[in-house]
Amino acid sequence: xxxxxxxxxxxxxxxxxxxxxxxxxxxxxxxxxxxxxxxxxxxxxxxxxxxxxxxxxxxxxxxxxxxxxxxxxxxxxxxxxxxxxxxxxxxxxxxxxxxxxxxxxxxxxxxxxxxxxxxxxxxxxxxxxxxxxxxxxxxxxxxxxxxxxxxxxxxxxxxxxxxxxxxxxxxxxxxxxxxxxxxxxxxxxxxxxxxxxxxxxxxxxxxxxxxxxxxxxxxxxxxxxxxxxxxxxxxxxxxxxxxxxxxxxxxxxxxxxxxxxxxxxxxxxxxxxxxxxxxxxxxxxxxxxxxxxxxxxxxxxxxxxxxxxxxxxxxxxxxxxxxxxxxxxxxxxxxxxxxxxxxxxxxxxxxxxxxxxxxxxxxxxxxxxxxxxxxxxxxxxxxxxxxx
Length: 388
Known about the structure:
The chain is of the alpha/beta class. It is 37% helix and 11% strand. Strands 3, 4, 5, 6, 7, 8, 9 and 10 form an eight-stranded mixed sheet that branches. Strands 1-2 form a two-stranded antiparallel ribbon. Helix 5 packs across helix 16 (369-387), helix 8 (154-162) packs across helix 16 (369-387) and helix 9 (178-190) crosses helix 10. The radius of gyration is 20 Å and the shape is globular. The chain starts with 8 loop residues before the first helix and ends with a helix.
């Protein structure tokens, strides 16, 4: 029988005890918390966040996830070259290492080196990227729920704006299907003022399927998109979605959550491995915009406590996973591989400890996200010049 945990309380109490947090006081009514944008997030919202996160991240079946060979066609298990993936890891490594802040982990510890990577090159020449491209960010699953707690790249967007980039935050519905979000994205693009600069779109997690659906259903938008940079993007789906889909659809999709509409289950269905692989089989040739993949593959000591359980379950298939995706499920077939980062699925995009300090002990997110994203944009821009 399927058994699903619906509460994070035991995990929170255990972790809080380790951190010498007064757990009894933690769950008592308390003054509102101030989030990074200045809005106030009351304690009930934090408790709702705990419940919702538990339902999705910890709601896996008690049995082990199915081995890859039972559900995945051989094409996904081929080498990168056989899959048409162009390797630009050496360019990305040089770009990241050249701009890490002083308090960052060493570059070799942050950007993992796996066999086949070319000799590192000199840092890329800056070609006035801000005057040639706009930068758009697209979030992932549950992005607007709880009034945007767990919203990705809030810190990166502010820094890029201060550096002179034209930055756009394209909003999607956190519990909508990719088809619905494609319509929302097309509408937002159509409403923008004319600008000759195309977008480099930085997409996170389910944001990748949403943007791919945009490019497929609204092909005219391709003229406004120069490249898509996928950060821990759900390119080929996830065994977590395979395992959770029916339970989520039947029991969780209609759960009311402040800040977002109720779901239908399609939002998780779109992340199933069979759905994503069939989508690529049918539609890969229609996607002509260059696609870049940045893959999160944390070592065990860099996995946030929030993701420990799903990381362990995925590790039974392959230890190279980010707590939500297996490494090869984040690589876009026929695209460009930027590199492998020693961070988990949440930390690579979300400054959760800044957004909800009271739960900081659940995350390992001291990550130089600005360097990771800016380097990805630089490599994408340089590659576009080469293609041109």
